[in-house]
Hints:
This protein is mainly alpha-helical. The chain has one domain (2-24, 36-260). The protein has helices at residues 10-26, 40-49, 51-72, 75-82, 86-110, 112-122, 137-154, 158-176, 193-199, 217-222, 246-251. Helix 5 crosses helix 8 (158-176). The N and C termini lie far apart (38 Å).
Amino acid sequence: MDFLLKLVDLESAWLIALIFLPLERLLPARPAQGVLRRGWFNDAVYFLLNRIPIGIGLLLVAAFAVMAGEAFLPAGFRTTVAQQPLWLQVIVLTLIADLGFYAAHRLFHTLPWLWRFHAIHHSIEELDWLAAHRVHPVDQILTKGASIAPVFALGFSDGAIAIFFILYQWHSLMLHANLRIGFGPLHWVFASPCFHHWHHADQPEAWNRNFSAQFPIWDILFGTAHMRRDTMPTRYGIEDNVPPTYARQLLYPFRRGSKDAA
Length: 262
């Protein structure tokens, strides 16, 4: 579980930028959007600092999940899970994790006290790969915690969990990137940038839709899918008056009347 606490270093930052910056120029969803779009510096601060508190929080979630699994599940069952072929573990693990994420994500849109944390992420008005990092630590720990807790409790192998974390990280960056990619027929199988951009759309037909992180199947099954792919949203963001800087955004959910806290 040490990889949960690995901090972002300059080498990984350059690697991500070198991949996504050219892609966003070659296949842009919004060609007029510049690299230094509104809020880019604030999101760069999130990129550099956020994984410290989030890493610690997720490490604690994972540790408690392992203890719960060992206490309440038969050891033979957890051993059997870990001994399945790696490819099968990754598939089953990812489906379970995405269902947990879907449930937690939907709650963050439903319960007002949770929405105050999630509003930080939805305050983004111009999406790109860097925007994926604008997430309040409490939001990320709870939603990602709901995703990984059953995975650790059930006893999936360290290798399968590591692969999942790598896939999730890169997929999340792609979903937020300024990319016009719809995945063709696989749009119904894997979440695409088009699918997730509609989740961020400030357009009534897309409000509270597309909660899944990786598989649209959960939105389709639970009636929250907005599977349009003929066009991209024209507006992003929310009406909440979220402050513009990292420090003030961290405090925003805790302030009384936070909707007017800016």
